[in-house]
């Protein structure tokens, strides 16, 4: 039924719960799992307030900090890949820098994802749950054609 399952993961227990559901779905359809972590870009101060050399140094520092965060999350996601492999599921890691919702949508298209399994933050019933989804969950549900499985974290 599914070939590629995307699990956006923030390195949290909520993401681990979503991963468990993805592993179950992958086992029944022999799908591959892609673990995605998006490093939110560190906001920069306005560059017009700094000299050119200060601006260049600061930009380099921000790039280095983002890359360090990215490397750390690759290592952290490696632990989750091991869990997938122990369950005989092929898994890979993608770590990007940017806006979470935008990056998730890009990966869905680029990797031809069949199913997204992700944690949701709010626990409400019925229509209220759709009206109050977190901003990332809402944007994914509204802007992709593939099925999205939202996992309650409570």
Automatic annotation (TrEMBL):
Signal peptide interval: none
Gene3D superfamilies named among the record's database cross-references: HUPs
Residue stretches making up the UspA domain: 1-151
Family, as annotated: Belongs to the universal stress protein A family.
Name of the protein this chain belongs to: Universal stress protein UspA and related nucleotide-binding protein
Organism per entry: Candidatus Nitrosarchaeum limnium SFB1
């Amino acid at each position: 039924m599914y070939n590629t399952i995307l699990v956006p993961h923030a390195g949290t227990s909520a993401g681990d719960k979503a991963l468990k559901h993805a592993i179950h779905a992958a086992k029944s359809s022999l799908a591959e799992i892609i673990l995605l972590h998006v490093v939110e870009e560190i906001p920069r101060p306005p560059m017009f307030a700094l000299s050119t050399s200060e601006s260049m140094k600061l930009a380099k520092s921000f790039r280095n900090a983002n890359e360090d965060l990215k490397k750390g999350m690759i290592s952290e996601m490696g632990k989750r890949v091991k869990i997938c492999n122990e369950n005989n599921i092929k898994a890979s890691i993608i770590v990007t820098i940017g806006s979470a919702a935008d990056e998730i949508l890009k990966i869905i298209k680029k990797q031809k994802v069949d199913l997204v399994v992700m944690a949701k933050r709010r626990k409400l019933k019925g229509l209220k749950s759709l009206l109050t989804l977190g901003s990332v969950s809402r944007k994914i549900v509204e802007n992709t054609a593939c099925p999205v499985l939202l996992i309650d974290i409570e």
